[in-house]
Write a structure and sequence with these properties.
Blueprint: E1 2-3, E2 10-11, H1 29-33, H2 48-54, H3 64-77, E3 85-87, H4 89-98, E4 102-106, E5 110-113, E6 119-123, E7 126-130, H5 132-140, H6 147-164, H7 167-180, E8 185-187, H8 194-204
Antiparallel strand pairs: 1-2, 3-8, 4-7, 5-6
Length: 208
């Protein structure tokens, strides 16, 4: 998310999980290991984090997976990443449930389950109040459609959350969830700056 700090105007940018041969910052451990880009077998953007975590001994840092991913995104887009938020699937589901769900205008019938497991149900089209589990599946399902559709749905969910949820309530619940589970939510946003981001979220609601 790229945000104007004065107006709150936000642009959401998504990258395909199977982006191949992603580059890394010059001189970085990942660049030295993959000077032609991330080009090993099965090495796509969504594997950068895991590769770096699995090879921690090569890095002199606490979170090589996060930093390698940020480096890949910066080199791929030409953007500077100021902060990150890492929310795992359980944390996302709990966060949505804790604020009473999120209302989505479902544009395409979306499978719950599938790809390695049976389809267990469907999220039907039309305006729906989704639970945490449903919102998670709506954001990540790719049965009967593709990654591009999924990326669009992910932005739809994020936009709905910004428009509908009270930022102060979300922040309080994020803190509780972060304390209650192991690394369900981690971020590089300093605690003392959280109020600034709440203010930005309120500004963002006034923009398309």
């Amino acid at each position: 998310a790229s945000m104007d700090a004065d107006t709150g105007r936000a642009v959401l940018i998504g990258l395909p999980r199977n982006l191949a041969k992603v580059p890394f910052p010059k001189g970085s451990v990942m660049d030295k290991e993959f000077p032609q880009g991330f080009d090993c077998e099965g090495c796509y953007l969504n594997a950068v984090y895991t590769w770096a975590q699995d090879h921690k001994a090569q890095f002199d840092e606490k979170d090589p997976g996060i930093n390698a991913t940020i480096g890949a995104v910066e080199e791929s887009t030409g953007l500077s990443i100021n902060y990150y938020a890492l929310v795992n699937m359980k944390g996302f589901s709990k966060l949505v449930d804790s604020v009473g769900g999120v209302k989505i205008n479902v544009r395409e019938r979306t499978a719950i389950g599938g790809i390695g497991s049976p389809i267990r149900g469907w999220i039907e089209t039309g305006e729906q109040q989704l639970t945490g589990s449903q919102a998670l599946w709506y954001a990540r399902s790719r049965v009967m459609n593709d990654d591009w559709s999924r990326m669009g749905r992910q932005k739809c969910v994020l936009n709905a959350m910004v428009q509908q949820l009270n930022p102060q309530t979300v922040l309080l619940n994020m803190n509780d969830i972060a304390k209650s589970g192991s690394a369900m939510i981690t971020t590089s946003v300093p605690r003392q700056d959280m109020a600034v981001f709440v203010d930005l979220a309120l500004k963002a609601r006034k923009n398309p």
